[in-house]
Amino acid sequence: xxxxxxxxxxxxxxxxxxxxxxxxxxxxxxxxxxxxxxxxxxxxxxxxxxxxxxxxxxxxxxxxxxxxxxxxxxxxxxxxxxxxxxxxxxxxxxxxxxxxxxxxxxxxxxxxxxxxxxxxxxxxxxxxxxxxxxxxxxxxxxxxxxxxxxxxxxxxxxxxxxxxxxxxxxxxxxxxxxxxxxxxxxxxxxxxxxxxxxxxxxxxxxxxxxxxxxxxxxxxxxxxxxxxxxxxxxxxxxxxxxxxxxxxxxxxxxxxxxxxxxxxxxxxxxxxxxxxxxxxxxxxxxxxxxxxxxxxxxxxxxxxxxxxxxxxxxxxxxxxxxxxxxxxxxxxxxxxxxxxxx
Length: 342
Hints:
Blueprint: H1 2-5, H2 7-16, H3 37-47, H4 81-94, H5 96-109, E1 114-115, E2 135-137, E3 141-143, E4 153-165, E5 171-180, E6 188-191, E7 195-198, H6 201-204, E8 216-220, E9 227-234, E10 248-256, E11 262-271, E12 278-286, E13 292-293, E14 298-299, E15 302-305, E16 308-310, E17 313-317, E18 322-331, E19 336-341
Helix pairs in contact: 3-4
């Protein structure tokens, strides 16, 4: 695990030094005498939240007959490691729109994809300088890789405010905490107020099938303050899409702080190709048993869109294992105001 632990300071320091597309050799890449499937899984879990997702192994047999060949592909790992690795790969591709947006932020604003815990701090919170074995992935996620073999717990630090467990949607407050972990997961949290776009990768099977005209699902993790999120997408073909207004989309999502009446979400277009329509699916995390919005303990009973009542529906999604209140809207470029009412 020593080489794995060393990746955390390397990735963060290189990111701050102006090298945005950094990675570690996921799974390890060294002369070793044995395969370590647990290390492989833990490394892939971290690499899922890194600029480049690429497993490594060794294939030195033809050169060094006494060297141990260690496969880089998940298919050659025993169960349950193979299935866990598969779920990590699926998770990586479901976050494709979020990750692509990070690339846009880096290109247009110079922001790193991996960010140290103190990167977004405007306070004198000294704990953020001590939590060096974890990091931000963009501005929404805090990722705390499991760095010890056979670990049953992981200690981590969350900045002040409310956070949602990425896998269960359970809300929690900032501060030092110790989470129980299994081989299937590591601590990943989403900041309250965040918008996280994702793609139904399993339905389409390949990034070659991804189109900027397909439905866009964006998850809003409700917060107590007003927040906004700029989303960029393009046709994937025009190398000058950033400068061609007909080749890219630029949406702004805004949320007004949840209050006694409900949650307000605004969608507007900073750039929208003429004649384009795209289905946008907005999701809110809700309790699995009482269908109440996580963190607010109140059910959404009505939705008004631009002042008109609209139907709501609940959907149980396989990943993460959580329930969501979901609404679909065909966006044509005109501003939309969604009022989710308690």
